[in-house]
Amino acid sequence: MTRPGAPSLCRTFTQLLTTTVYVPGGPGPITCATVSVGLRAYGITDRGRSRPTNEDCFAIQEELGLCVIADGMGGHNAGEVAARMAVDAVVDACRAALDGSPLLACEAPRSRHEGGWPFGFDDTRSGDANLLRTAILVANLQVLEAAVTADVCAGMGTTIVAVRVAEGRLTVGHVGDSRLYLLDGGRLRQVTRDDSWVASMLAVNPGADSLLLQHHPMRHALTNVVGVRAGTDVHVLEVTLTGPARLLLTTDGVHSALDIERLQHLLMEDDEPKTLAGGIVAAALARGSQDNCTAIVARVDGLA
Fold first, then answer.
1. Domains of the chain with CATH codes
2. What 3-state DSSP class applies to 189?
3. What is the 3-state secondary structure (H, E, C) of 43-87?
4. Separation between Cα atoms, residue 75 and residue 66, nearest integer Å
């Protein structure tokens, strides 16, 4: 049921997806890195063995050097809506900016008060970093608006990881507990840090028993998600790539079942992203994952 005076869910969903950000008098086209490396990526998602719906979502735009993954939450399939809205909003914002659209102008403003960056511009970071942060904040407001407009969407939210590879640099924006891993030099490491109660406890007390924490009643609680509050915290990271690398984006249905050693082994079994992504999801399900399982594997080649 929709709240009195509010548009229907379908109408709201459509309107939000087509909303663009425009600030009159904003600066010119984006000054972001061009895609000068080869990115080959493949993603697979599986509903899993116990969930009635799949609330995970992902997108791959190789021509933009962009991969996005999200894990929605909320009743009555609202999590599925939140994840799709967030992924689409990020892809649309990035495509518009990288195509030079003035609707989301992304070069550094001449002053901090100049239009074009509705959430501000961090001049200590690159154009790509500011782009992903802005795109995720746009997604956050769109999901939040839908959640407070339609009863069936009340309480919905989503995690998100957005990755862009260009000119030898990996730029990441993320919220929640979906993850990005980077395999280079024969070693896999987790690039993102979970926005979760467990991660918060380990940050305060690194010596805490992680096994006990994994069985705590609060173990699934998230401390930061997209679509729950206007001021969500978007974490932005930038990593310089020095050679060929492999990227792995996962939702928690995968990495809750497979530790980093197992993921590293699986990522080195083949060269094809499609084969690797399928093997990782299959391994998570075989290990007993009860959640939706999604993995994106990307190969980054062509670095000097």
1. 9-301 (3.60.40.10)
2. strand
3. EEEECCCCCCCCCEEEEEEHHHCEEEEEEEECCCCHHHHHHHHHH
4. 29
> Do 226 and 83 contact (CB within 8 A), yes or no?
no
What are the tens digits of pLDDT across the range 38-53? 899 999 999 998 888 9
Please state, rounded to an integer, the average pLDDT across all residues of the chain: 81
Q: Are 129 and 171 in contact (CB under 8 A)?
A: yes
Report how far residue 223's alpha carbon sits from residue 95's, in angstroms, rounded to the nearest whole number: 29
CB 226 within 8 A of CB 72: no
For the segment 253-284, what is each residue's pLDDT rounded down to a tens digit? 999 999 999 999 999 999 999 999 999 999 99
- Residue owning tokens 């862009």: 164
The pLDDT tens digits of the residues spanning 132-154 come to: 999 999 999 999 999 888 888 88
The separation between CA 73 and the C-alpha centre of its own chain, rounded to angstroms, equals: 14
Q: Three-class SS of residue 12?
A: helix
Distance CA 285, CA 39 (A): 27
How far, in Å, CA of 133 to CA of 149, rounded?
Answer: 24
- DSSP strand pairing (235-240 vs 245-250): unpaired
Where would I find the H helices in 150-288? 197-204, 210-213, 252-255, 260-267, 273-286
The confidence score (pLDDT) of residue 266 equals: 98
pTM for the complete prediction?
A: 0.83
Residue 27, pLDDT score: 38
State the alpha helices, DSSP H only, in the chain: 9-17, 78-98, 127-149, 197-204, 210-213, 252-255, 260-267, 273-286
Please give the residue that has the higher pLDDT: either 197 or 214: 214
Comparing CA positions, the residue from 135, 133, 88 lying closest to residue 237 is 133
